[in-house]
Amino acid sequence: MKKIIIAACLLAVSVSVFAQSGTNSPYSQFGLGLLSDQSTGFNRGMNGVGFGFHDHNQVNVKNPASYSALDSLTFIFDAAVGFQVTNFNENGIKKNAKNADFEYAVGAFRAARHVGVAFGVLPYSNVGYNYSNTANVNAFSSTQSVNPTYSNTYSGDGGAHEVFVGVGWQPVKNFSFGANAGYLWGDIDRSVVNSYSDSYVNTLSKYYKMKVKGYRLTFGAQYTLPLGKKDAVTLGVVYEPGHKTHTDPECLVVSSNSQTSVNDTALYSIKNGISLPDRFGAGLMWSHLNRLKIGFDYQLEKWGSIGMPQYQVTNNVASYSLVGGTMKDRSRFTLGGDYCRGERYRSLFSRIHYRAGLSYVPSYQTINGVDGPKEVSASVGFGIPIINTYNNRSILNITASWINRSATNLIKENTFMFTLGLTFNERWFAKFKVE
């Protein structure tokens, strides 16, 4: 019991140190930001594949039905940090940005025969950007004979995170189901600050703020079909119902003039203005001798039916309301695999897990009337067992990932990410006899 309390304290510390932003991408200014894949160390080595995977010594939050496969008499705690470098390229102009972020912290244990419980904190979205543009006004100033310039500075930071608890149960052989119940929270701040070289011109700046809060429910099921003595195929499905959250996005509009020092402000708000979409996922995992595992996942999020808050001026009338058509349904295709010769072998190289994966996400954002970026990513990873006098079941998960976001006539991004995770697997619940 004391060790469970210690683990809960570690999780609380993890929540408190979660960074509010783990990106520098200008594309994070749309929607709720860049959406996280919500995967743990062993999933990330396969680029996030996991709907059909279940493992006895790893926490697979992609499908809560997988918790039923956890080892008995053990407690698993998994946490990771990430480091990334991103190269931005627009019309031949290149810039680099660096980030470091606390990625996730999850724990799991078997509560009863064929019943597993998991809990933890995961990222949901990230917002982080800061850039500006400058142009001529295209009209002569009323006080000068030169054409003044204006600039808009766009900035934003924050994100949303989820704390959850889940349970998975295997009522009959080869079939299991489960559910995660989570609470979503976070602050997302964005701004567009307008300024002119001519101080007599009024500036118009907009400050957007939302305190994200709401619940999430995810349901999952897995069925394993044996194919002889050496092979098996597992089908996994997940479903998350969409709903409105208790989030009231706000927009503060400030019109000011540095000569008169007069500021006119207007505050707009939308009650329950943020919704989460219906989410569907399905995946297959083929296992050979429980050594080689290859999986394919498809995920669909119905963002296209959800309106996003926008400030607009029509016929000199300003409004802040939900506008549809800014996003489309988001699909994700992922192929990945894991190979380990066998955990019973003495050789370290025979016990290492070798992982790799590929993903593709078509464009689901609309930016200035054109399709936003599509995303292509790849990863390689290793699960290295930690063997010492006290422990031989913990795993060091190392993943290197590449993410490319590109669209015609828009910014191109190349991100290289390194994730370092540690899965503690301790024998907590065994009763030892003293002779």
Describe the structure.
- Residues 1-19 form the signal peptide.
- Keywords: Signal.
- It comes from Prevotella lacticifex.
- The protein has a single domain (2-426), classed as Outer membrane protein transport protein (OMPP1/FadL/TodX) (Porin).
- It is 6% helix and 60% strand.
- It has three helices and 23 strands.
- It starts with a helix and ends in a 9-residue tail after the last strand.
- The model is unreliable at 1-16 (pLDDT under 50).
- Annotated CATH architecture: Beta Barrel
Could you give the distance between the termini? 25 Å
* Major sheet strand order: 2-3-4-5-6-7-8-13-14-17-18-21-22-23
What is the helix/strand order? HEHEEEEEEEEEEEEEEEEHEEEEEE
Q: Bin the helical content.
A: under 10%
Tell me the number of structural domains.
Answer: 1
Full CATH superfamily name = Outer membrane protein transport protein (OMPP1/FadL/TodX)
- How many β strands by DSSP? 23
Largest sheet: 14 strands, antiparallel, barrel
Helix count, DSSP H or I runs of 4 or more residues: 3
DSSP strand (E) fraction? over 45%
Shape: elongated
The CATH topology annotation reads as: Porin
Radius of gyration, whole Å: 25 Å
Query: Structural class given helices, strands, pairing?
Result: mainly beta
Oligomeric description of these chains = single chain
Signal peptide: 1-19
Keywords: Signal
Protein name: Membrane protein
